[in-house]
What we know:
Layout: E1 2-6, H1 12-20, E2 25-29, H2 32-41, E3 46-53, E4 57-58, H3 60-69, E5 73-81, E6 85-88, E7 99-102, H4 104-109, H5 111-117, E8 122-125, H6 129-137, E9 142-146, H7 148-154, E10 157-160, E11 170-177, E12 187-195, H8 202-211, E13 217-224, E14 232-239, H9 245-256, E15 258-268
Parallel strand pairs: 1-2, 1-3, 7-8, 7-9
Antiparallel strand pairs: 3-4, 3-11, 5-11, 6-9, 6-10, 12-14, 12-15, 13-14
Helix pairs in contact: 8-9
Amino acid sequence: MRLAHLGPAGTFGESAAVAWAPNAELLALASHARVADAVQRGEADAGVLAIENSLEGAVNETLDLLIHDTELSIAAEIVVSVEHCLLGQAGAVTTAVNVVYSHPQALAQCRKYLERELPDARLEASLSTVAGVERALGEEGALAIGSARAAERLGAEILARGIQDRGDNVTRFVVVAHADSAPTGRDKTSLAFKTAHDQPGTLVEVLGELSRRDVNLTKIESRPSRDALGVYVFLVDLEGHRLDAAVSAAIAGVRGKTSWLKIFGSYPRG
């Protein structure tokens, strides 16, 4: 299997890919959009995308890809424990730091540490945590946030470990492919919809199709629809497989009360 992930090697995306398919041929790519495109074009059989973090919530780039830019399905999910480290050149000191590089999610997950320990440093986003480490290693007065694995791979010095705002920091990744997974008896289904009318109670009516059939909703959030200001796409995760009788009936009911519905897929719970 060829499995694409956000690269370079040493990212948490690579860790998720290895956890899901230890023997896969890994393909490290520059962005989540490129990962999805590689699967769509047949350059990879599946791709790993970060979708949610326990500290910072949704990864909007991935949600927007699923809503607007790809017809790929979610075939699996992986939950990875995330420990962020402060990395730099050998002998680097935190008293002479001008800038800290990392992926925006990593910077956000370490906000309290950065405000406390490096209040004067400029925070600059990179395409991945590893890309941030690579840049910091080539620049005086620069540090990066990345994994211990990235430090080992790139020869960076670990100046501090576990700098994320909470020790129980985890990121949920999804595997996207051309088809979702068969029922296992322990599944989730993810979908998105727009309500049919901008009137009071329309969202409650849609969610009522789930509750009336005892389908448990595990998450709901929204993203701009890109149609107009104030018009949103609602994204939900629910327990069960789309082929289960209750879930299938609930989805049919939701479809009748929405103007647009997209099923991202059903897959085993991570």
